[in-house]
Amino acid sequence: MDLVTGYKSQSGTGLTTKGYAMSEEKWITRFIFLESVAGVPGMAAGMLRHLKSLRQMKRDHGWIETLLEEAYNERMHLLTFLKLAEPGPLMRLMVLGAQSVFFSGFSLAYMISPQICHRFVGYLEEEAVITYSKAINDLDNGHLPQWENLQAPQMAIKYWQMPEGQRCIRSLLLYVRADEAKHREVNHTLGNLNQTDPNPFSAKFKVRDALSQLEVDGAKKQF
Ligand SMILES: [Fe+2]
Ligand SMILES: [Fe+2]
């Protein structure tokens, strides 16, 4: 991915090394490629678990919705960045190639060991967090002047409900990075669980937790 997107890690020779300094265009290229790949695992895993549930006529314990939600979130990252750049035919070809290889490889691996796959995705998400942190750092250090006064696309403002006064590209990168950090947490957690364990991130459990918190708060008030 680093080779395809002309990226070199800041450790070692550094991003500012001649030929590897990241411009706005290079960052967007990296974001688009990264997000086009990042949207695959959630959908592949969700689909496989859905099919398994149908086939075995057993419950999934709330994993599918979280996985599909992750895939949707990644696709929104991609669609947002596509508002800032138009990928050329070569990029589209690389995305096509990467998707074919990654989707088949990941699906096969998920059928063999879902736990290892979630762990792998957890580490990929950590890399995504590092990428966005470095981009924010570049922006803060004045290396990305075109983004300093640029507004986030309308689609992003609506999706993340970005408040007035916090709709710049820096805020957008902070929102995206927060999503990646959540994906990292979710995937590392799913990697720790057994396949029949309930998904702790399921909306059903979130509602139950919120209700029990309300009950605790209510009990405290009465006391
Ligand atoms: Fe993403
Ligand atoms: Fe992610």
Automatic annotation (TrEMBL):
Fe cation 2 binds at E74, E125, E180, H183. CDD domains: AOX. It is found in: Mitochondrion inner membrane. InterPro entries: AOX, AOX_sf. It is a multi-pass membrane protein. GO terms for molecular function: alternative oxidase activity; metal ion binding. One of its GO terms (cellular component) is mitochondrial inner membrane. Fe cation 1 binds at E35, E74, H77, E180. It holds the Pfam family AOX. Keywords: Electron transport, Iron, Membrane, Metal-binding, Mitochondrion, Mitochondrion inner membrane, Oxidoreductase, Respiratory chain, Transit peptide, Transmembrane, Transmembrane helix, Transport. GO terms for biological process: alternative respiration. Its EC number is 1.-.-.-. Binds 2 iron ions per subunit. Its cofactor is Fe cation. Catalyzes cyanide-resistant oxygen consumption. May increase respiration when the cytochrome respiratory pathway is restricted, or in response to low temperatures. Belongs to the alternative oxidase family. This is Alternative oxidase.
